[in-house]
Amino acid sequence: MTDELVSVVGILPALGSGLTDLARSGQHERLLDYDLRAYAQGFDRVLYFSYFHESLDDFTADPFLAERIRVIPTRGRWPAKLYAILMPLVHRRAMRSCAVLRVEQFSGVIPALLARWLWGIPFVVTYGYDYAAVARARGARVKPWLYRALAAVALPQAAGVIVTTEALARRVRGRVRVIPNGVDLVRFAPSLRPPSWPYLRVLYVGRLEPEKNVARLIEAVASLRRVAIELVIVGDGAERAALEALARSLGVRATFVGAAPYCHMPSWFAEADVFVLPSLTEGHPKALLEAMAAGVPCAGSMRGGIMPLIGPEARGKLFDPTKTESIACAIVTLLTDRALAQRLADEARVFVARFDLHRVLDEEVRFVQSVSLPSGPSRAAHGMGRLHPSPRSPMPAAISGDSDEKPAKAILNAWTGDCPGA
Length: 422
Known about the structure:
Blueprint: E1 8-12, H1 19-24, H2 28-42, E2 45-49, H3 63-68, E3 69-72, H4 80-90, H5 92-96, E4 100-103, H6 110-119, E5 123-127, H7 131-137, H8 143-154, E6 160-163, H9 166-169, E7 176-178, E8 200-205, H10 214-223, E9 229-234, H11 240-250, E10 254-258, H12 265-270, E11 274-277, H13 286-293, E12 298-301, H14 306-310, E13 317-319, H15 324-336, H16 338-352, H17 357-370, H18 397-400, H19 407-416
Parallel strand pairs: 1-2, 1-4, 2-3, 4-5, 5-6, 6-7, 8-9, 8-11, 9-10, 11-12, 12-13
Helix pairs in contact: 2-17, 4-6, 7-8, 8-19, 10-11, 10-15
């Protein structure tokens, strides 16, 4: 009797994350219905390594997903940074059974990097935006350095680095593949908008964090007192209370929805007259893709991945996110010149068709398959996990013990400790 050949992919979330964490923002539905389903169709088995005590049954009853996906819950009550280092050892058997590890966000790369050094398991990581820039925008002093150092060590070790834009590809070392974010063109489609009288509805979707620049959006709406506007903010974050107070103090009619389930997002776009993304830094924003697919006139900041999506004002209005009057001008133009707004929205809908989510995920899964180790009968049971690091990717001296201090060791030391000012 011979063992059945089984291909296994391990999915690693962002540092400290899991389905429980994603459910707080309504994003677990997207992960399950699209990303994990695509990997379950491309591999025989999917192992999702979580930082939470959770099971798949807590989030879905889908029989196909239940058959193919296994959630590996955390063990013990370790701090997330320490558990990231311990994970390959705590779940050694499960991790060694994987032909490849897929790191969903760069902050979750530590377990994959260690599995690469220990057992030669290849990994593919997404570097979706400038992590150091986001950390700086949040006032951190140590984290920007830490992210840069981690990138310098981890990305060249990756079997593949997925970036979402050409601009990021030019800044990243390693085997880089540009695969943008995608959007479900069926779920997010233009619909007949109910009249929003007596108020015109301006919509923002995203986290409420400093780099998202929502305070200036509120100030911009406050300056448009001659236009009856309701500002709808869908999302949550550390700045919510301060932003609510700001809106009240400026007399802005604002509705803070909080985190909304992913399945409810099409209805929020359907009721919007304008969508605004005022971020100070962005990768390839999913919310903007969804707004464009839904046929909502869009305005966005002249930053990062927003600019190539909107183009030279061919598919929306661009503004300087550091200037309140620039944001206000873009909003009022789209609200008052409805012919222009409709033309831009129509162009955006045609353009965004190239980011069909199903096609994007098919490309991603094929890329991950291309770097996987050969499928084998129960890799962990047959010792295939005992692969040595390849000559081209030797285990760093700081890990092997051949040096007192190397960048990799400094990163691990910083990762397990508290970072003053981070």
